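WARN no homologs supplied; continuing
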Amino acid sequence: MNIKDYFEKNSFESSQLIVLEYDKINDLLILVIRYARTQEFVKWLQGEKKPESPVSDFRQITFKEVKEFKSKGILLEEKGEKIVYYMKNSEGSFSIDYMKLNSEELKMRIPLTSPAEIEFNFKSFSVKQKFGRGIKRKNENEWDYVDVKTGEIFDFYDPFNLIFD
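OK structure emitted
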């Protein structure tokens, strides 16, 4: 997957940051987001298609050989050799303003709401993707998320089973 093409073709504006894990020992940075720019979601926002819940596009982006990781305005926790942000355990949430890639240096800058931002250099990346739909539980104000391909229920705050508290 070409790094420059991927980040040019995918607009991460308004996507929710669900998980940030920076593994200092293995130089890995994992971001889990709920991607906001799906066609179905945009149609749902515009009122063209109003199911109770549109399909959500969850992505796990793993940046490899990460160096010079910096953050500001986001409260990160030290968990062993990892620095983490879990939306599940936080008082507030962050949306991505945009992802700015300097493709010559492979430097990424990600401004977030509130104002906050993260910045880092990397050598390569990979992406996992999962599509899920929120289903309201009967007689409750809570939702389950169901994988549209497998039918399995998963945790909105941990769609790729990364969090081990």
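The helical segments are 3-9, 39-45.
OK
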